[in-house]
Task: structure prediction
Amino acid sequence: MSKRILTQQLAAGLSLLALSCAAQAAELSFKGIPAPRDDAAKRQVLASPEAMIDGKAHKIGYHTILRSGDVKKGGTFGLLTDQHGKPVPNGKGKPEISNSADFSSLLRANGKLYMITHFENRPGGMYLTELKQDPKTGELSAVSTKPVDFSEYGGLWVPCAGSVTPWGTHLGSEEYPPNAYAVEKAPSVDKIKDYYRPMVRYFGLDPKSASIEQFRKAFHPYRYGYPVELAVTSGGDAKPVKHFAMGRLALELAYVMPDRKTVYMSSDGTNEGFYMFIADKPGDLSAGRLYAARWTQESAQDGGRANLQWVSLGHATDAEIRHAIEQNVKFSDIFESAKLAKDGTCPAGFTAINKKPKCLKLKPGMETIASRLETTRYAAMKGATTEFRKEEGITYDPDHKRLYVSISAVARGMEDNAKKGKPNPKYDAGGPNHVRLPYNPCGTVFALDIRPDAQIGSDYVAVNSHALVSGKPVKYGPESPWHKKNKCDIDGIANPDNLTYIPGRNILIIGEDTGSGHQNDAVWAYNVETGKLTRIETTPYGSETTSVYFHPDINGFAYLISVVQHPYGESDQDKLKNPDDARAYVGYIGPFPALKN
Result:
C-alpha cells in the first residue's frame, strides 16, 4: 500500500473518529420528573435530580439563591423604592416587598460575579446582588444585595424578561406600557386604569388621593416601555440606560444576535407586533433602524406557517427620542384620531388600524417620534402585522440557524375574525387580518429560519415562521387526577413563556406561564431533533416559571437560571397557609459542568 493511500485512509479514519466523538460530546438529557399529584408535591419547587452529559450522569437539582424579603448586608431583596431610595408603601401603609421576581442575569465584572434581578411591579425594581461561587461544587450564594437607582428616568415600569448581551451586559425590559391616548383624555384619576395608578407612588403620591393635575405632572406615559441595559461599574453599582431608539412596546424582552447589532424584540399583549432593530454600531444600542414583521401566511395546518417580510420604521437615536419625552410630547401632538365607521372605513386622510383609536392621521414631521413612542400603532399604519397575542420568549439556536419565539396563546388577533374559535370581528376590525390560525389556548413555540439580507445589512434576518411544538387542549374527566385544574395535556406544554437554547446539545428549554392550562407550571427540555419533551421542573400552586436562561460556562460550571414568581398569586390563592410561602424564589437548576459548544 502506498504512503499516499495509507495517509488518506488514516485521515478518513480520524475524521470518522472526530465525528463520532462530536456526536457523543453533543449528548445532554435530563431525568424527567412527574407532574405533581398530591398536595405536598404541589407546594414545592421540584426539579430533575440528574443530567446525562456525554455518557456520564451528573447530580443536579434546584438551588435557591434568594427569596423575596431576604436580607443581605442590610439590603432587602425585592423591597420597592421610590425616586429618593425610600421604601414604597403598600396598600396597608407598610413597605412593599415584591413577590414578582422575574428575569435574573449572571454577569462577571471586576473579578466578581453578580446577578441583576427584575421585580415586575409598578413601580418596578431591579436588584444588584453580588454572588459567591464555591470553586469546588459551583454552588452560588448571595453576599449582598441592593436596589438599582432609576430616578434619572422617572423610575422603572414592569420589568419582565430579559437577556445577556454578547458583550456581557444585562438587557431588561418594560412590559405593558401605559396607553398615552387613554391617559391624555381621562377627565379624572378614577377614569385612569387601576393598573397605571400605583406608579405614582414612585414620586411620593398616594394613588387614591392624588388629583388629576398631580397625577399628570408626575406620570408621563412615554417614559416607559423600552429595553433597559445595565452594566456593572468598577465601583460595584449597576448603571441603567433606557434605549429609546429601539421603540416602545409591551416589551417581553430584547435578544441580541451574535453579530452584536441585530436585536429581536417580542411584545406581550393583544394585537402586538414583532420587531427587529439593527444598531448602527456593534455593541452599541443607542442608535439604529427599527423594523416590524409582516406575516404572509402559507398554511394554518399543524400550528401555522408563514413567510416574513420586514417593514422599515426608520432610524432614530436615544438622544432625539429622549428629548421629545422631556419636552412632554403627548399623543395628540403625534396623531389626529377618528372613529372607524360601521363599514370598516376611516375618514379621508386617515389610516385604519386594529388598535384604538382605530383611525389615525400622522401629524407633519412626527414620523420618527411616532415610530418610537407609538411603535405598534405606527407599525400598523405602515402595513406591518400587529395581530400577535402574548408574544413571549426569544432565543437563538446557532446549530440550526433558527430563532425560537413563544406565543403563549394563539388567540384573538391571531384567529380569523374570531375569539376562542367563535366568530367575532373585534380583534381584526380595522386591520388587514394577516394571521388566520386556529384557536389554541395552550400556545405554540415557533421556529424562524435565519438568513443574510444585504439590503437590511444583517446576516441574522428571520425569513419565515413555522410551528415547532404546540400545547394540546384536553378535557379531563372526573375520574382523572387532572380534572378541572388542567385544560392542556399534562404531558405537553401549556402557555409557553420564556425560552433558552443550550448550544451544541439540541436542547430548547421552555418555561410555562399558565393559569388553567396546568395547575402547577412546569419547565421542559425539548430536543429539537427528536421531538422528545422532558419535564425538568414544577413549581408551587399559583406561581409562574420565569427567567429560564442558560449560562454554559462560568468559571467551569454551567447554570440554568430559573425563577419562581408569585407562588399562590395567580391561582389557588386559597391554598396559601403561611404568608412566607408566597415569597418568590430566585435560583437555578444545576450546577452542571461547563457545557461548551
User: Anything to note?
Assistant: The longest strand covers residues 284-299. The mean pLDDT is 95. Residues 3-25 form the longest helix (23 residues). Helices lie at 3-25, 180-185, 212-218, 318-326, 331-334, 367-373, 375-381.
